[in-house]
Amino acid sequence: MQNLSQRDKKHLWHPLTQHKTSSLPVGIVKAKGALLWDDKGNEYIDGIASWYTTMYGHCNETITKAVTKQMQHLDFVMFSGFTHEPAVTLAERLIHILPNNQEKIFFNDNGSTAVEAAIKMALQYHHNKGDKRDTIIAFEDGFHGDTFGAMSASGLSSYNGPFEEFLLKVKRIPPPQEDNIEDVLAQLENIVQHHNCAAFIFEPLVQGAAGMKFHSAKGLNTSIKRCQELDILCIADEIMTGFGKTGANFASENLENKPDIMCLSKALTAGMFPLSVTSCTQKVFDAFLSDEVHKGFFHAHTFSGHPLGCAAALAGMELLESDVILERRAYITQAHKDFIANIQHHPKIKEVRSMGVILALDLNIEMERYGNLRDKLYQFFMERGVILRPLGNTIYVLPPYVITNGELQKIYNTITELLETV
Ligand SMILES: *Cc1c(COP(=O)(O)O)cnc(C)c1O
Prior knowledge:
The protein is an alpha/beta fold. It contains 14 helices and 16 strands. It is globular, with a radius of gyration of 22 Å. The chain binds pyridoxal-5'-phosphate. Pyridoxal-5'-phosphate binds at residues 110-112, 115, 143-145, 203, 208, 237, 239-240, 265-266.
């Protein structure tokens, strides 16, 4: 009898995988809290909350109960021409905690499609107003997803290479740091003067896939302000940062000038269900109101606003600001700071940083994003029962809020052991 990994090899094609050289995927049979178990009985700590989705822990009973209850009641109905309680309540709750200029909720089914809808909204917003705008402004090394519009906005060449000539027109600026804000603003000014810019898309404060790179809230804020003066719609991709990871519920809370459009997914449904949101201001929505039918937003995904996803999201939002989770968010934030104080002068570390529950350290070693050495780091952690997915020479930790003190300590110890080994 073959095990899961061997059977997998016959018919499956995995994401982000070079099947010729990669090792077999690990067969996972069970999950609870911050832990996963494989089919050989090994236990792993999920140090990145399965791509930062399962923030309240795997198989969290509050979430599983809410979804079970919903599926016995109303499983699914298409969201064009119909509505339902979970979607309406979720929209009300989201509008309540999102930055206060957000008024409308458009549902999609994953992160990339949330971004895709955001970009199309921005392009059509100008089109509806009879304004021909064709350029998107984005940060260097941003990541916004893998569909064509989202991929166009993404600046990570390891993903985009073969598709470069088929992408939308995008102009890039470096993410502003405290010491280069003037330079970035000059570059932005040059772009807006020479192109018809429709939108500016960014991951606010933290660029996730780029390696948990932080930038200046002040610089971002000034960039948004300049764009909004020219009616360039500002799109905050909070798919990674949303729901408490940076400390605030949303990273955009640190901005004075609020985005016109926001994208949410990942932790939105606590990892239970693929669902996403593109929210926007009344101004954006109003540009689609017309007696001419075609000025509406003719964009849909079959599973838009899925009731099960909405039910999971509602249960997740109950947890987000519960006393238990608030305590854990504060604990992890402080634990990261203490760990940084301990290791920051280690000769193998180039830079170490944290924001909220995000911890990232850049090793003093050059390596390819998906090269051999990076794979060795990954294996080093796996052999010790810790799941971390280094991005090139950046090791990051973004644990579920419910991780225990002991589990978090084990992650730190394993990183320390690695520093002594590499
Ligand atoms: C993961 C992610 C996406 C893409 O979401 P998918 O659900 O994987 O399509 C987009 N933007 C950011 C910032 C992300 O972290």
